[in-house]
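In the laboratory, one determines a bound structure by crystallizing the protein with its ligand and collecting diffraction data. In a computational setting the workflow is compressed into a single prediction: the sequence and the ligand go in, and a structural description comes out. We illustrate the idea with fe (ii) ion.
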Amino acid sequence: MEDLSRRKMIKLGLLSSATALLVSCGENSKARIATPAEIEGPFYPLSGQADQDSDLTETAGYHGVADGEHIIVQGQILDTEGCFIENAMIDIWQANSKGRYHHPNDTNPAPLDPGFQGRAIMQSGKNGAFRFKTVMPGTYPVSETWIRPPHIHFKVSRKDYLTLTTQMYFPDEERNEADLLFSKKEASEQLLMTAESGDKEELAVYRYNIILERQS
Ligand SMILES: [Fe+2]
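The predicted complex, in structure-token form:
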């Protein structure tokens, strides 16, 4: 890749310096470990939500925006050989800024937010890139002694690859360590499941690459 276009892509946030040289499945690619799976959890969205675009801070027909801190999450979908995966389906869902899911089984008394979309479905583009705008998810109680740290659920699928269901965590979150799911992972797995802080734009940016495994 020419220096100019690489610089431009880094500026656009589509490549981090660490992956800037990774442009194809050719000589610059390197083997990677697949992103660890995590449980789907009880709040996978029910069908019927029409608004599923990649801006979760606005909902169709509502005049206002979602409560809480608005953030950008972006990254790339790759395989374990380091090749970019385009046209992968990326299905995400999360709690709103108060820790409540838009799901009838969520008994958390925290309020629903009519400005928050709660779920999005998008496709990876050129070089496997994806990007969405959302809110920093709130924490929520699972039991009297277990409070989940902020996280975003991902389900990523593509023909010829194993579908990956996982959860993305945020860096420097004090609740990560005590979380009963996150703490069960090896340190190396935790690293792969935690976003990095990216260069701040108008909003805070979190970078999160997802590595899929080929179907054998
Ligand atoms: Fe969750």
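The chain has two helices and eleven strands. Keep in mind that any predicted model is a hypothesis to be tested, not a measurement.
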